[in-house]
User: Which sequence fits this backbone?
């Protein structure tokens, strides 16, 4: 099983979500991390605070955001959440808005964070990968993309 599939605990994926803003998209990612036992609600607050302070640095590629915060006591275990959006939302990034795929990332430590990001970058460097994600109708299809 890939590191990404390990990080995506059962219940941490939501497909075709409707949100009104980037804040709601990040909150939904945070809720899924909390529901899967990976973080506390304080981590969601930290993700929102980081974006408010630093700007839309989490929009890492066209249509793709990866909200995260520093490792802290609010992280219970390394994990990810995935939300695909029915309608894209703007984070305020000049080149990569609007966003349709949002991955929440929580890491216990820096090394685990880098391993996960390395595998993640490998997948997302494949042409058409974001469109493949958006065409998925079930969690099982998402998981097969990451194997």
Assistant:
């Amino acid at each position: 099983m890939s590191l990404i599939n390990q990080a995506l605990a059962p219940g941490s994926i939501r497909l075709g979500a409707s949100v009104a803003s980037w804040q709601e998209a990040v909150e939904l990612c945070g809720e899924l991390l909390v529901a899967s036992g990976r973080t506390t609600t304080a981590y969601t607050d930290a993700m929102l605070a980081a974006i408010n302070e630093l700007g839309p640095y989490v929009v890492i590629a066209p249509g793709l955001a990866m909200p995260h915060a520093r490792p802290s006591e609010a992280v219970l275990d390394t994990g990810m959440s995935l939300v695909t959006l029915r309608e894209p939302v703007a984070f305020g990034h000049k080149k990569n808005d609007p966003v349709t795929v949002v991955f929440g990332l929580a890491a216990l430590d820096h090394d685990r964070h880098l391993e996960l990001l390395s595998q993640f970058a490998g997948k997302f460097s494949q042409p058409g990968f974001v469109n493949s994600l958006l065409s998925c109708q079930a969690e099982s299809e998402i998981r097969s993309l990451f194997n």
Residues 37 and 76 are 7 Å apart (CA to CA).
